Amino acid sequence: MGHAETAFEPAYVAVLTVSDTRTEKNDTSGHYLAESLQEAGHTLADKKIVIDDVYQIRAIVSQWIADEKVQAVLITGGTGFTSRDNTPEALIPLFDKQVEGFGEVFRMVSYQEIGTSTIQSRAVAGMANKTVIFAMPGSTGACRTGWTKIIKEQLDASHRPCNFMPHLGK
User: 3 vs 40, 84, 169, CA distance in Å?
Assistant: First the structure.
């Protein structure tokens, strides 16, 4: 028995750039994600830039998780190995369930682009209060990889055999 056809449903998506140096003027990765999700038919619920601080990251993401309107959060930056890369540490305690497959698939497709350097990516994802959260490296190329190769399909209710849309709050 096949899956019933489901039409595209727009989601409310927030974008967070984690960086000690980016501003609204030079945030190419955050702008890429905001523009791409809107081009795909989704609504930009909010966009912010925050310094790479565990508690400031958690505070913003927690607000979005608690907001019934926000269904997905896309995060760029803070996933590397420097002492200032804290995004996974900020997010993982917030997750009700971790989406291990996101990091695995991200590194698999990224390997085709940057080779073994992909092992230094700590891309993570999870679900929290019916909100899906995807965290990617800070480069625009990494965001393009994450969006085009994984996230865009997973935020499309017509993508089969499965996607995240049925699991998100309304």
Answer: 23, 45, 21
Q: What is the CATH number of domain 12-165?
A: 3.40.980.10
Q: Which residues contact 67 (CB under 8 A, 6 or more apart)?
A: 45
Q: Mention every residue, 6+ apart, whose C-beta is less than 8 A from residue 116.
A: none
pTM: 0.95
Q: Going residue by residue through the chain, which has 170 residues, state the pLDDT in tens, using 9 for 90 and above.
A: 445 567 889 999 999 999 999 999 999 999 999 999 999 999 999 999 999 999 999 999 999 999 999 999 999 998 988 888 999 999 999 999 999 999 999 999 999 999 999 999 999 999 999 999 999 999 999 999 999 999 999 999 999 999 999 999 97
What are the structural domain ranges in the chain? 12-165
